[in-house]
Structures are given as C-alpha cells and as structure tokens.
Design goal:
OB fold (Dihydrolipoamide Acetyltransferase, E2P); 524 residues; mainly beta; 30 strands; 5 domains; 7 helices; disordered N terminus; five-stranded mixed barrel; five-stranded antiparallel β-sheet
Length: 524
C-alpha cells in the first residue's frame, strides 16, 4: 500500500471538496455500523459519519452494509479531518421540499395524528410536526376524538413557514373535495326507479337518512315496509349499508326521496288469492293489544286475531296471557279485505270447539261439578273444565225458597255440584240445576206433612204489600195473603212484625202443581 504524504492528503481533500459542499444532500451507502456512529460512503474519495443517535432502534436493526441512505453534509472537515453528515437534516429538507410542492400544487400529503393539543391536534409528516386546527379535522364535529389518534390520513397544506418550522394542515378540505366528487358522481346516477347502495347516516322517528355518496336521501317510515313499522330502528342501524330505490329526485332543491319496501311487490295485491277464508296459515306474533294480536304471515302482510278469536272461553283473558311477541302460531283465515288491507284470523278455530265435545261428554240428568264464575240477576254461570259456561237459572236454585237474588245461595268462586238439565250445542247453551240434586218435596213430602186447616208455627221472612212470606218447618215457604192478616193488627204491619219474628199461621191452601202454600193469620 502506497503511503500518502501530507501534501498528497491535502490534494485529496481539496479534490473531494471541489466535488461536494456543505449543505448538499447526497446519496450514500452504509459501510459499517459502529457503537457510536454509522460510516457512510458518499461516492467520493473520502467517507463520512453520522451519529448513531440520529437513528431509532427500529432503523438501526434494518441498517446493513450496502443500505442506501440520503445524507446532508454538515461539515467537510472537522478537527479530526472527518466529513460530518446528518440523516435527520436530509430527511427534514426533503420533507420541506415535499410540503412546499404540496402547498404550491395543492396536492395532499400523508401524515399521522399523534396527539391533541390546545385548539387542535399534532400531525407527524415524515418527521415534521404540523398543526391541525380543530375546525379542520372533519366536515362535522367528532363525537369520539380518541378514534382518530394514531391514524394515518391525507391532509392539505394550508400554511408553511420554513424559518419558523410552522406547518398548518387541514383534513376537512380533503374530505370536502371527496364529498363533492362523490356527489357529482352520485347525481349522474340519480334516476327514479334506480336501485342504489348507501349508508345509514341517521335514524329519526319519521324515517332514515341514507348517505348515497355525497348526497343524503330520506327514507320515510311509510316506505320502509308494506307491513307495520313501529320505529325505523327495528329495521336499520346507523352505519349499516342498505340498498334503496330512488322514488323521486328534486334537482333544484337537491332532495332525494327513497323507498325500501318498493323493492318487492305489495303482498296485498294478491292477498285474496293466497289467503282464502278457511285456509290454515302459520305466522309470527308481532304486536299485542287489548283487543287482540297481530300475526305476520309474510314480510309486509299481517292479520288480526281479535280477542274473541283467541280462545273458546266466553270471556277470554288478555291476549298477552296466551301469546308473546315472537311466538309462532297457527291460525285460520276468517275474512280478507284487499281494499281495506285487512285480514281477519282465528286461533281458536284451529282446535275443535268445546261445544262439539260437550254432547259426547255430558248427558241430561248427569251430575257434574264446576266453579261459580259469574252471578247475575237471573242466575249463576258455572265454568266447566272444557272451557264453557253453563247456566243455573234462579228458578232452579231451590224447590221451596223464594229467592230474590242468586247471591243469597251461592258465592263467586264456590265449587258446587249440579245436574245437567239440557244441552244445546248449536246455540252454545247448557242448563244446570242445583235443586235437582234432591228429589222434589212437592211430590210426596209436603202433601204428607202439611194439611189444610193445620195451625203451624213459622218465622217471618219478608213483608210485602201483598202479604207476608213465612218459613215453615223444613224450609218450606208459604204466603199469608194481605186479606188473611188479622184485622186487629195496625195498618202498618211492619211496625209490629219484622223479619225473624215467630208467628202462628193456618194453612188454607196447598197447590202442589204451582208449588204454593196459602196461609192465614185471622182468628189466631
């Protein structure tokens, strides 16, 4: 190896310095990595070094001999005769050139939002920190700010001051341009009857706003489904992609009316063909009211099961006691009205009527048991296990007592036995008797026990204008006619006799056919 003298070294440096100069940006290759520096070949007769501190740990792991790198010449010859280079300054100069070009040409640059500061955010663009004002983040206020931190995005350079290292950028301008571009493309496609895809932007009580691409359209609640729609949120979610049909486009006001149900034919147009009366159908319970339940047979087509058609009981319970929303049920079509868009269904008619079973299970004269369900002025209704109510008329409660109201004998909820008197399945009627549990005392017992002319003791039951009802032995009732009351008594009998008083009476009439006993208080 030829040893260079001092003069030769000076000539070598001079030749190198004529080719390069301080402040230049050069391309070099990594020759070696040392503990505190990286040695770079810049293609001349001398090598340069970069402090290892200018490299991140990640960059150091990627550096290998032969790797290309851009460097900035800081000094041509320091006290040790070494060319000092900088990677950071080279990068920064290149970035500033890029930013200047972007500002001049209005082209976007890529950066990453790194944090939030007063009035906006910091954006890192290839090592240069820029300021993003809060008003320039988006076209609308952001609800979730944290979601944009750490995200890479495109920005427009608004202002640049190299000396002060001051960079102001905007993301909003980029978004507005994209929206305008999309809007122009969308408007070209806006034709009535056209199917388009969009994104659900907002949901209100009256409809859904859909972003079609730079322009919003309104899907009114009435155009969501051919059937019942309680709220648009039952069908859509914000951010969801949907396919809609253009119903109307007002170019002057830029208003777009959308449809969703119109993508499918109206099921009510052929409802009478598909759902003729008597047909059995299956559907899903979608709504329950006090007066019945709505059943969805297919999308957009619902029928009403009136409360009277849910159960064979004369007084059905609330519809919610039978079914819940979402239940699958079977029903029978009762009536179809295509013009009024009404479909009447019956659930109870899927099962046989209990009145078809009653004649097979019960016979006249049979003793049965049931529970008192309703008490009226004319009688008592008794509930039977089959779900029908049978009537005990007030006249069939007792053989001998004069009953003003059935509540004197029976109470609601009381379990009783009775005898079947008659069955009329066609009229859905069944008659029962309570007194028939015992033999008729008027046939044998009363004629044998009571004779004309007998004087007997009794108890006053009730005083009326036409006489006094008296209870005789054995619970048999008789009537003291007003004409047979002792004349010695005052005109107002109630002042002397009251219910519960004991009296002496004489039997003056016995009519077994009419089941009446006439009494007298004269001369007693």
């Amino acid at each position: 190896m030829v040893e260079l003298k001092n003069n030769d070294m000076e000539k070598l440096y001079a030749e190198t310095f004529r080719s390069i100069g301080e402040g230049m940006i050069l391309k070099g290759k990594v020759l070696a990595l040392k503990e505190d520096r990286v040695i770079i070949d810049i293609g001349y007769k001398s090598e340069g070094i970069i402090s290892i501190e200018e490299f991140s740990e990640e960059e150091i792991t990627k550096l290998q001999p032969g790797s290309s790198i851009e460097v900035y010449v800081e000094s041509l010859r320091d006290s040790d005769g070494i060319i000092r280079l900088s990677k950071e300054r080279a990068t920064k100069i290149k970035v500033w050139e890029t930013l200047e070009n972007a500002l001049r040409e209005e082209s976007p640059v890529e950066g990453k939002i790194t944090g939030k500061i007063k009035g906006g955010f910091t954006v890192e663009i290839s090592g240069v920190i820029a300021f993003l004002p809060g008003s320039q983040v988006d076209v609308k206020p952001l609800k979730d700010i944290d979601r944009i931190i750490g995200k890479k995005m495109a920005f427009k350079v608004l202002k640049l001051n190299n000396k002060l290292s001051n960079v102001i950028v905007s993301r909003r301008v980029i978004l507005e341009k994209e929206i305008q571009k999309k809007k122009a493309e969308t408007i070209e496609k806006l034709k009535e009857g056209q199917l388009m895809k969009g994104t659900v932007k907002n949901i209100t009580d009256y409809g859904v706003f859909v972003d079609l691409g730079g322009i919003d359209g309104l899907l009114h609640i009435s155009d969501i489904s051919w059937g019942r729609v309680n709220h648009p949120s039952e069908f859509f979610k914000v951010g969801e992609e949907v396919e809609v049909i253009i119903l109307k486009y007002d170019e002057e006001n830029e208003k777009v009316t959308l449809g969703y149900k119109q993508k499918k034919p109206d099921p009510w147009t052929i409802v009478d063909e598909k759902y003729s009366p008597g047909r059995r159908v299956e559907g899903r319970v979608v709504s329950i009211t006090d007066y019945g339940a709505f059943i969805e047979l297919e999308e957009g087509l619902e029928g009403l099961v009136h409360i009277s058609e849910i159960d064979w009981l004369p007084r059905p319970k609330h519809p919610s006691k039978y079914h819940s929303i979402g239940d699958t049920v079977e029903a029978v079509v009762l009536k179809v009205d295509k013009d009024e868009r009404r479909l009447s269904l019956s659930i109870k008619q899927v099962k046989p009527s209990p009145w078809e079973i009653i004649p097979e299970k019960y016979k006249v004269g049979q003793k049965i048991s049931g529970k008192v369900k309703t008490i009226t002025d004319f009688g008592v209704f008794v509930g039977l296990p089959e779900g029908v109510d049978a009537l005990i008329h007030i006249s069939d409660l007792s053989w001998t007592k004069h009953i003003k109201h059935p509540s004197e004998v029976l109470k609601k909820g009381q379990k009783i036995e009775a005898v079947v008197l008659g069955i009329e399945p066609e009229a859905e009627k069944m008659a029962l008797g309570l007194k028939q549990l015992e033999s008729d005392p008027w046939l044998n017992l009363i004629p044998q026990k009571f004779k004309l002319g007998d004087e007997v003791d009794g108890k006053v039951l009730m005083i009326t204008d036409f006489g006094i009802f008296v209870e005789l032995e054995g619970g048999v009732e008789g009537l003291v006619y007003s004409s047979e009351i002792n004349k010695a008594l005052p005109e107002k009998i109630g002042n002397v006799l009251k219910a519960g008083c004991n009296v002496r009476v004489k039997i003056i009439k016995i009519d077994c056919e009419e089941r009446k006993i006439g009494l007298s208080m004269k001369n007693l």
